[in-house]
Amino acid sequence: MNEALPDVPEVRVVGLPQLTSGFDLVERLDLPMHLKVHGPLEPLGGEQLAQLSERINLKGRGGAGFPFHKKLRSVAEAAIKRGVRPVVVVNGSEDEPACRKDTVLINRAPHLILDGALLCAEAMGARTLVIGVTRESTQRSMEAALAERGLSNGRRSALRARVQRNPVRMVTGAAASLIRSIDGGPAIPPGRKVSASRSGVGGAPTLLSNAETFAQLAIAARIGPERYGNTGLYDEPGTVMLTVSGAVARPMVIEVPTGVPLRYVLQLAGAPPNPQGVLTGGYHGKWIDAATVDEAIVSRNSLQAVGGALGAGAILPISQDTCPLGESLRVAQWLAEESAGQCGPCYLGLPAAARGLEDILNGGGPAALEAVKQVAKNVKRRGACSHPDGSAMFLESTVKAFTDDLAAHVLGNGCGRPVEGVLPLFEGGKAPTGIPGGGGEENGPSRQKIYVDWTLCRGHGLCADILPEVFQLGADGFPTVAQADVPRFAEAKAVRAVRRCPALALRIEEDTRGQAPSSRTNLPVLSQGRGRRALGR
């Protein structure tokens, strides 16, 4: 099957709509219709926004679930301390094949997202707003929304707002990747972990959160914390946007109050009555088995309690008629291809884990199983971003959830079931990379290949220090690869590794068929004036 989800699949709602209000009236709420449906929105002070976020227990809806009020206060405090204006960034880079909730919101209710972002920008005195997207449809919708508000050219407002479009890649959605691309670099993690709240876009404190998070804030600011809390659970009030796909009759995005049984959500999408398993949280999420599905309700805490994850809100059941390890292998191979190629544990570890899972399916026995477990353990907490951690969590969950199927493959001749390809991937299994003017070429095909001459190598190890994206040292102290493609962003380091090798054991061969990188336009330098306080009471 391997059919990619459309940008805007069917949208359903359980109970009264909040984020999806007006979807039954028009395909896209332009500014006049948005105001008719949601009404005007009064500005709030910074501390009022922080208190509102805290009272409704608003957490980031991009997967990490970090409390929004803590992020808001952290950015404000850093801006006040340094005397600079902060930056607000909306992360609409929804690049996982199984997620479409943010894409739906940007395409159909862009002004609700802008409401939340502009509330924060006004409260903190920010003069720069950037909306990160990766799809042509989301770029068009958000640019149209900025134009409808008179923010597209910066002439009618002190706020500079623009859309940053990046390639469709799993790592593009990482906060550090988006910030790096806004600053003019490639849309990949920078290799060092720095809090955006302290130093983000242009080095300024940056409030960066997921598109749905800003939309939820706009709803709460309009109706107040009491009315907002009347929907959903006491400790996790409000609604949640879910993308339900996999073995379902109707892939869809559903807005549901927290507390709704997961089984009911699956029934709405036409899932099998007795699924073999349900992947919760997407491809950086966790599997739960059929028995656990009946215990789970839609909430972050409930899914975590039963071994699942809310993550980015993707829910994917599979039927009894397909091989769960084979379905998971397709995803593991895709996750390996999505590596940014910067860190050895990710660049080398994820393909090794996928090969290990393939060995299990091909009768590799207990040794193959132990190898997969070891590789998954080794890649965690060693990357420049969360991609290896999330991928390892998916692999470990796969091994843990399908014990019967695993035993059939490890100890027998396999489960005998086909791989139907019910878990959606992009066309051909890979995400599109290049975009017009998007600067995706930094992540494109390598133009260089580096080789190790084993007759000269003496195991000095400098290559692994200079070029860890390519080289790792084995137990014997020598590189573990004889040749490898060099990621484009690491080409300068590859040249340095060749020049500094004491044994002259490295060489580079150039492939000139690649396209030249496109130019980028950096953001203007941020104003250094103190202006207003970022969180004034």
Characterization of the model:
This protein has 537 residues and is an alpha/beta fold. It has four domains: 17-227, Rossmann fold (3-Layer(aba) Sandwich); 240-318, Ubiquitin-like (UB roll), CATH 3.10.20.600; 335-419, de novo design (two linked rop proteins) (Up-down Bundle), CATH 1.20.1440; 446-510, 2-Layer Sandwich (Alpha-Beta Plaits), CATH 3.30.70.20. Helices cover 37% and strands 12% of the residues. The protein contains 19 helices and 13 strands. Strand 6 (239-244) and strand 7 (252-257) form a beta hairpin. Helix 5 packs across helix 8 and helix 14 runs antiparallel to helix 15. The termini are far apart. Residues 433-445 and 513-534 have low confidence and may be disordered.
In spatial order, strands of the major sheet run 1-7-6-10-8-9
Helix content: 25-40%
Low-pLDDT runs: 433-445, 513-534
The largest sheet is:
6 strands, mixed
CATH class of the largest domain: Alpha Beta
The coarse silhouette is globular
Number of E-type strands:
13
Whole-number average pLDDT? 86
Reported by name, the CATH topology of the largest domain is Rossmann fold
- What structural class do helix, strand and pairing data support? alpha/beta
Oligomer: single chain
Q: Treating each run of at least 4 consecutive H or I residues as one helix, how many helices?
A: 19
Number of structural units classed as domains = 4
CATH 4th-level superfamily of the largest domain = NADH-ubiquinone oxidoreductase 51kDa subunit
Strand content: 5-15%
CATH architecture of the largest domain: 3-Layer(aba) Sandwich
Rounded Rg = 24 Å
Quote the distance from N terminus to C terminus. Answer: 55 Å
Organism: Streptomyces olivaceus
Protein name: Ferredoxin
InterPro entries: ComplexI_51kDa_subunit, Nuo51_FMN-bd, Nuo51_FMN-bd_sf, Nuop51_4Fe4S-bd, Nuop51_4Fe4S-bd_sf, Soluble_ligand-bd
Keywords: 4Fe-4S, Flavoprotein, FMN, Iron, Iron-sulfur, Metal-binding
